[in-house]
Amino acid sequence: MPLYEYACRKCDHEFELLIRGSEQPVCPTCHGTRLEKLLSVPAGHTASAKSLPMCGPQLPSGGCGLPQCGMGACGME
Fold first, then answer.
1. How far is it, in rounded angstroms, from Cα 29 to Cα 16?
2. What is the pLDDT of residue 9?
3. Taking Cα atoms as reference points, which of 68, 23, 7, 8 lies closest to residue 77?
4. pLDDT in tens, the chain (77 residues)
5. What is the distance between the alpha carbons of residues 33 and 45, in angstroms, rounded to a whole number?
6. CA 74, CA 30: separation in Å to the nearest integer?
7. d(Cα 71, Cα 68) in Å, to the nearest integer?
8. Residues 51, 44, 5, 41: is their CA dihedral positive or negative?
9. Residue 63 φ then ψ, to 5°
10. Could you tell me if 9 and 15 are in contact, meaning their C-beta atoms sit under 8 angstroms apart?
């Protein structure tokens, strides 16, 4: 059962919904059905916050591994 993010075109409310089977999503604010599905950033569960990649002095000179890291344009800062 996927969790989707939507924006209502009627009232501009943004929200998340758990969609089961062939359910049609409805805005919880105005009950509108003209919804736009938004792109979501996937979330990952880790054992501890220490395992998340973060730029800074605690990482080796390679940073978080992104090409931008270490060139002054790291997205983790």
1. 12
2. 95
3. 68
4. 578 899 999 999 999 998 888 889 999 999 999 999 998 766 665 655 555 555 555 555 545 555 555 555 555 55
5. 32
6. 40
7. 6
8. positive
9. 65, -140
10. no
Q: Which of 24, 31, 29, 3 is nearest to 14 (CA)?
A: 29
The 10 Å Cβ neighbour count of residue 37 is 11
Q: How far apart are CA 31 and CA 10, in angstroms?
A: 9
Give the number of other CB atoms < 10 A from CB of residue 30: 13
According to DSSP, the residues that pair with 17 across neighbouring strands are: 4
Which of 6, 3, 25 has the alpha carbon at shortest distance from 14? 6
CB atoms within 10 A of CB 19: 13
Tokens describing residue 37: 């599905």
